[in-house]
Design brief:
Blueprint: H1 3-16, E1 31-33, E2 40-42, H2 43-47, E3 52-57, H3 66-77, E4 83-88, H4 99-109, E5 115-116, H5 129-138, E6 147-150, E7 156-160, H6 169-180
Parallel strand pairs: 3-4, 4-5
Antiparallel strand pairs: 1-2, 3-6, 6-7
Pfam families: GSHPx (PF00255)
GO molecular function, one term: peroxidase activity
Organism: Pseudomonas cavernicola
């Protein structure tokens, strides 16, 4: 897609206004509370039509330094439309007991500027709908910092284990593929 076509498609999307629930991909239907904020993230309004990297996080996990790499990926591709969504979870017993500590670790210690939610369940029957859909499309997260790359239509195009660092060439190739996908 040329830059001109990309800008034109963004303008059309902006003029069209928010998507209705019928137009929003199932993956993005719903809201999640923002980390340490009074407002929620309307997933459809914020992410529909955009390439997305979704990561289940845990602030006390040995993989927590990946926050820096995730932030670097976000900064590198943000201008091309990429969004990153961090979803803290205690499913693997490594998330802070209070969201104030989670926020401090994310925002102060690692300088995260991408969207973060309050801690959520990401595995099993009690998983939030977003992760139920991610799991159905690609498999359940097996540990913290499992990564899902989602195209502009809300389809998972790749998933990566916790061991995959954010600067991994296969992960970045998947992000670039998601960016190139048509809305």
């Amino acid at each position: 897609m040329t830059l001109g076509k990309f800008v034109f498609s963004l303008l059309l999307a902006a003029l069209a206004g928010p998507l209705s629930a019928a137009e929003c991909p199932p993956l993005l239907q719903g809201e999640l509370p923002k980390l340490r904020a009074k407002e929620s993230i309307d997933l459809c309004q914020r992410f529909a039509g955009k390439p997305l990297l979704v990561v289940n996080t845990a602030s006390h996990c040995g993989f927590a330094p990946q926050f820096k790499g995730l932030e670097a990926v976000y900064k590198r591709y943000q201008g091309q439309g990429l969004e990153v969504l961090g979803v803290p979870s205690d499913d693997f017993k490594q998330e802070a007991a209070d969201s104030t500590e989670t926020a401090k670790i994310c925002y102060v210690n690692y300088g995260v500027t991408f969207a973060m939610t309050e801690p959520q369940q990401v595995t099993g029957d009690q998983a939030i709908p977003l992760f139920k859909d991610l799991t159905q499309q690609s498999g359940a997260p097996r540990w913290n910092f499992y990564k899902y790359v989602v195209d502009r239509q809300g389809k998972v195009i790749a998933s990566f284990s916790s061991l995959t660092k954010p600067d991994d060439e296969d992960l970045l190739a998947a992000v670039e593929k998601a960016i190139a996908s048509q809305p």
